[in-house]
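Discussion board: Methods & Data

I've been asked by a reviewer to show the raw model output for two of the constructs in my manuscript, not just the figures. I'm not sure how much to include, so I'm pasting the format here to get opinions. Each protein appears as its amino acid sequence followed by a line of discrete structure tokens. Is this the kind of thing reviewers expect to see in a supplement, or should I convert it first? Here is construct A:
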Amino acid sequence: MQISVQERRRPPVQQVYICIDLKSFFASVECVERGLDPMTAKLVVADPTRTEKTICLAVSPALRALGVRNRCRVFEIPPRLDYIMAQPRMALYIRYSARIYSIYLRYFSPEDIHVYSIDEVFIDVSRYLAVQRKTPRELVKTLLRDIKAETGLVATCGIGSNLYLAKIALDIISKHAPDFIGELDETSYREKLWDHRPITDFWRVSRGTSARLASLGILTMRDVANAREDVLYKTFGVDAELLIDHAYGRESVTIADIKAYKPKSESISSGQVLARDYGLDEGRIIVREMAEALAFELFARGETTDSINIILGYSQSSGRKSVHGSLRLDAATCSVNDLVRGAQSVYERIMDPAAPIRKLTVCYANLHQEQGQQYDIFSSHEEQERERSLQSAMLSIKRKYGSGSLLRCMDLQEGATARERSRQIGGHRA
């Protein structure tokens, strides 16, 4: 293919990324649904049917301005404050998120949008600025205005010359901007934020990382940039490379890289914290429910496993530490019956009948793409084909009518959680 003289002379497109976040998303949606101003109403999203120890999923900006921490527990909210407690409605939040995503699609191709979470996206706007004849800030103002007009929600945005700077502009700069828009390039990043504290405000700097940096006398990104690299590599290993790049405001990963990345799943798991202490028999029901649900997920993905792992967390009142048990199968399988039997055998082996259970996790590891069905030598070919056909039929029903459309008798027993979990999204009521 020949390239024209004009094409050769055309300067490369300058990379510009934006990162948009919806302020106190869950709480703001609940305010809008009640006809309240999300920026002034005092509202928390938490399940009133649970105890005062339950975590608030979101806190409105007005309450945060009064010192109420995001994701605090209900009992931590000062009793003097008058506020609304809203029941979580996850399906509603997903619908709002979809509406906002449709706004992005008016301006950008899906290939340039990376959904980071239900309320946050990265967008590569580089090739759209010239077409729409707007500066990055002008384009962002249009987006934020559309979101506010059509949903009532307030959004904030970071603009950066790479993904990292867009995220930092959002997390640190936009909070103090009157228009909720922050903007950074490598030069302004060093000028404005090299001495910013605490260092945990920076993306991917955890409290643990901060503590290890502090032990080296490193408290700011300027300190990281000036530190000896050999010391950083000795302390953080390969993670030091990312830390050093971020200290200078550099980021090599693009949205195109993210889109091209194909993760290889090595395990799937399901865990739950029980609403109360469970005994041996009740725990047996939960293990069966979780093992079965995971087996159907494995079957749907066309994968098999030969490794079953279970972790039991006992009630604090028992004084017992959590225990782990595993089972290696003779052959990889996605048979619901085989996996449930295996999970139950692990449970029976590691469970202390005298210690009440409060947490349960079931994990299938060492996953493989199914290469034809491997048959158990102790079972007939016809029997296993019959089970496979039944699994396929049950999966079709679940996909069409929902995960709660098929229940076993055990799911109706006292202590069973499958019915309730089928009505939840992310552990909360849909």
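Construct B, same format:
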Amino acid sequence: MDFNAKTNPGRESRLQQLEEDKVWDVLIIGGGAAGMFAALGAADAGHQVTILEQNEKLGKKIYITGKGRCNLTNACETSEIFENIPRNAKFLYSAIYGYDNFRVIDFFEEHGMPTKTERGNRVFPVSDHSSDVIATLQRTLKNKGVTVRLHTKAEHLEIEEGKVRGVKTSNGTTYPADAVIIATGGYSYQTTGSTGDGYRFAKKSGHTIAPLSPSLVPMTVKEDYCMQMQGLSLKNVEVKIKDGKKVLFEEFGEMLFTHFGVSGPLILSASSVVNDKIRKKELAMEIDLKPALSEEKLDARILRDFEENKNRQFKNVLSGLLPAKMILVMIQLSGITPEKKINEITKEERRRLVNCIKHFPMTLTGLRDYNEAIITRGGVAVKNIDPSTMQSKFVKGLYFAGEVIDVDAYTGGFNLQIAWSTGYLAGSSVEK
């Protein structure tokens, strides 16, 4: 259509008129995970469905999820999913139980894409290629007769007397419709087309938007020694984040030091928990580098190392205990002179070293921006949406699905599960 606009303006005009003369059954704004599953749900319910997607292809964000492997859901017990949704989990009961994680796995298996389950019950395509997820969805959409309009950007909703009437696109075409599903995503990964249009549509049509912020996102750190450890990945550590004496987050897992602060699975999950607090104030974080050892057992371990290296300098005996990139930082924090002979180190100095290893200190100062965030926190207020259908309580025939809603979850495939479940519920709930 874009090509014809350049070569045959008259033909484009005729096509535009044909679009505007037809009343579309179900229009879906956004061809991501939620949008595609909304299309499947609506098609299964007997509707003629059209997806309006502003990008050059469907599922652009899916391509980069799970580092290009696509962690498409989690194989935990369905009831456990809600434990991984820190905000508005109850709102999702109907959606998730209606189309649960095992049904998602079955869908892909039955449509020719085998899956595998890895650590933490994370589910991936056997191929390790997110493109296979997209290909499976596209093939199924085609088989179900779903129409896809690429390079088609929705500009605003047509609403009359409390009923959605259609969508007007940026090229001036109006698509009259009986129902519209907004599945536009959030602000995260803006290079994939997540421009926040859904929030604009919702707000303009009278819906409340819960405050937005990046989530599942790396965090910045005050201390400059973080840069010295850039690129260092820590496995099997415990992270604790506190606001004064109150513990906000405490989990075991993997993290990464960066030039600006910290990242990795532990930190991304933590960002979802401390999101509101850290946008207002700095928070204290400590890392237990040896969570399997009590302070007494760690002290005994260090004492053995010291006994074996009595005449060596302190700076030369830590390699068996710590990663190389941490050694200079640990020396600095412990306050022990680097050149000091091991046999001269006092019990108090050794206690300080133990404390630094068990409570490695950092100060969290904020969140990185949307382009580094996996998801957007906030969105269309759940009180504005019927949880049994995903239909707006204010505008008949208008539905919401996926990240545009004020729900978010931890890493591990839970956010995509929300997208699949809310999308399918929205699509299948459209009235005939």
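Answer (T.O., handling editor elsewhere):
This is acceptable in a supplement if you add a one-line summary per construct. For B, something like: The radius of gyration is 26 Å.
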